[in-house]
Please model this.
Amino acid sequence: MRGFSVRLAGLGVALLAVGCGGGGGNGGTGPCSPGAAVQLVTKSGDEQSWYFDNPLPAPLRVTALDAASCPVPGVVVNWAVVGSGAGAVSPAQSTTDASGVASTTDSIGAVMRQTVNASATGVPGSATLHANAATAPATAGVGIADFSFTPDDAVIKTGGTVTWTWGGAQPHNVTYDGGPTPLPASSATHTGSGTFQSTITTLGRYTYHCSVHPQMTASVTVVH
Ligand SMILES: [Cu+2]
Model:
């Protein structure tokens, strides 16, 4: 009963806070007033599958929570790869922001499955995240038909080759528009059939589109 009335009181405070119109810049994290952090929980980035010896596409993120699951800002999170020879995190230490979230970039090493631990001094509950790696493919195939590139996010190992194959009844092309320069050569416009290849050695993400149908966009990512 006591807990219930306390919770109602808290709700009243929250409603008042919303009623104030916000923008107060008081450093709060929303409708709750954070106490001491008791645990770190995974926010995002867990179980990514990528390629040996490359940084993962998305950061690892955890949220610090107090006993009432209210996000806690200002918590210093220590990131560590568990085991040896399995990549690295950067930075190894980061602080939770106004939303209670801290992040780091994880490079997976030469292991197929990597474990990263996120912990904070004085916080009993830590978080464990995993990443999975495989050998990057030397070749990738992309279909061009029905106003789309399929897949629209091809990945090749450095020095590898992407082959586009035309289909359908519309004219399309591969026109590079972003990435490490100099950009690879773009293709001619073909209709219904034809192929085109790019062999790329410089690491990075290259974006391209069809200049006939600019809404057709896709990318090639070159990894280690
Ligand atoms: Cu097109």
Summary: Residues 1-29 have pLDDT under 50 and may be disordered.
